[in-house]
Specification:
Two copies of one chain form a homodimer. Chain A is of the alpha/beta class. Chain A folds into two domains: 4-49 and 149-300, Rossmann fold (3-Layer(aba) Sandwich); 52-142, Rossmann fold (3-Layer(aba) Sandwich). The first copy, chain A, has helices at 4-14, 27-33, 52-59, 64-67, 78-90, 104-112, 124-138, 149-165, 180-192, 208-215, 237-246, 258-269, 275-286, 288-291; strands at 23-25, 36-41, 71-74, 94-99, 116-120, 141-142, 171-175, 197-203, 249-253, 295-300. In chain A, strands 1-2-10-7-8-9 form a six-stranded mixed sheet, sandwiched between helices. In chain A, β4, α6 and β5 (116-120) form a beta-alpha-beta unit. The A-B interface holds A 19, 22, 24-25, 27, 43-44, 46, 48, 105, 263, 266-267, 269-273, 303, 307 and B 19, 22, 24-25, 27, 43-44, 46, 48, 105, 263, 266-267, 269-273, 303-304, 307.
Amino acid sequence: MISKLDIQQASSRVRGISVKTPLIGNTFLNDLWDCEVLLKCEQFQSIGAFKIRGAANFALQLKPEELSRGLVTHSSGNHAQAVSYMAYIMKVKAVIVMPKNSNQQKIKNARKWGAEIVLCEPTIESRIETANAIAKESGCIMIPPFDHEWIVAGQSTAAMEIIAEHNDLDYIITPLGGGGLLAGTSLSARYFSPNTKVIGAEPEEAADGYEGFSSDERVTTVNANTVADGLRTTVGEIPFEIIKSNIHDIWLAQEDQIVEWMYRFWNETKMIVEPSCVVPLVAMHAQKEKLKGKKIAVIITGGNVDFNALP
Amino acid sequence: MISKLDIQQASSRVRGISVKTPLIGNTFLNDLWDCEVLLKCEQFQSIGAFKIRGAANFALQLKPEELSRGLVTHSSGNHAQAVSYMAYIMKVKAVIVMPKNSNQQKIKNARKWGAEIVLCEPTIESRIETANAIAKESGCIMIPPFDHEWIVAGQSTAAMEIIAEHNDLDYIITPLGGGGLLAGTSLSARYFSPNTKVIGAEPEEAADGYEGFSSDERVTTVNANTVADGLRTTVGEIPFEIIKSNIHDIWLAQEDQIVEWMYRFWNETKMIVEPSCVVPLVAMHAQKEKLKGKKIAVIITGGNVDFNALP
């Protein structure tokens, strides 16, 4: 159970490592939906994504003896960079297991901070197995990508910053992949802005969260065939339990609109964002009658795009 | 003579139309130059560029009788969008003269707010002649792009926002084209942060400002052959007089590094910026020994890139 105090402590703990990112309004979206949209720009974190929050909240709770053994994780993307960056800051080693078919930019970035990258087969089993073997052999501490209370509490700090600036939001909307961000956001709202409804957005082609939320039972496999590479994973056990009783709804994004919306968003907002970030926008567009007159924050999760392999 | 009060009044006047844009730090630039860089993100204005500040400060000083006659201007780019947007807000007509070879995105955006676009030959003479003829015939009020005290005072408000947040800056750096932004910035610093040095940055291939500043005599022609399309114009008379006695220096950017730096900047900052915006960064990189240990704000002027004609 993540308490109010856990979230407040996480906010203090990560400050200085994660940046208090700006909330930026956008005339185009306001006019399009006749509402007020604020974009929480997590792509402006040092690693270009919100994942630094969870990784920082985890790494900073390790004992010196644990830390000195180094960090290990498996990730296809932004969590890899987050753990690599934390190890760099804390001057310990990091080993990151990444699937062979990862976005080249994300591999390059993880390497930039000095982590050792171990490539594995592009299956979740291979990732976990490889990372566990490394942890066992080397004694490195595993920092899980989302299925841990420390990670969820860390991710909740983005919504804490939003709520500190605006305590009158109708909605906060985040993408839903492993569920760390959505779960954390839903707890921040529950404790500190109970009138704000929290919505998750998922690609139709990776709708395990939607199905789980609808049936009240977590779906543990998904044949994710979405361009939104950050959202291909299934929702974790701990995030699912939190999400199920704290969010208002999950909205789906039509797959064939994601890429088109990404470029539209780049053009209208001058922000480089990943396909995963526009999943909430595509989903919102399909629900636009619900947005009219509302004040809404959308968490823009990251901007680590591989310019050499644009969709 | 633009006074302290003129600038304070401009700041109050434009508020609500121009956005108080965020100042965003960036680890990549900090590490590269061993200093603290803050990016003033004018690309997040509604029109995607700082030019709204000057146009707003001008239009809001017109008498109702003048306003009702409509607005006219000539511009190859962001000023066109600024005037078009002001006319839209104030519910009057706008006629914008744009050279035939303008960036298609900027033409499209100017049209988006309802302005009538008149295309002309791509020479400064044709632009001015066409716009003057329209003003004479229709009675529309001409809003000049930079060579007017109201425009300079309007552009000064970006630096006012920077200084309000940080009164201990060593440098503020802006690109130099027509000179409205640099002149306005230099006045804001002179009046409100006198220890901050203001630097202009120009492409080597459009260095009329640099030559004029060095010789103390304005250069009125330039064979501008730079990819930084916003900086191809020569410095105006009014801006030149202000710049000459209020800035610290002008630094030049090597032409062949501008495009490479633009993509590097996109990748490292997740911001879409025009080639003109990276001219300060290229110029700073060449002067990096002067930046060490300093606190520096860079005004990022706009993000209206034509994705179908990327350099």
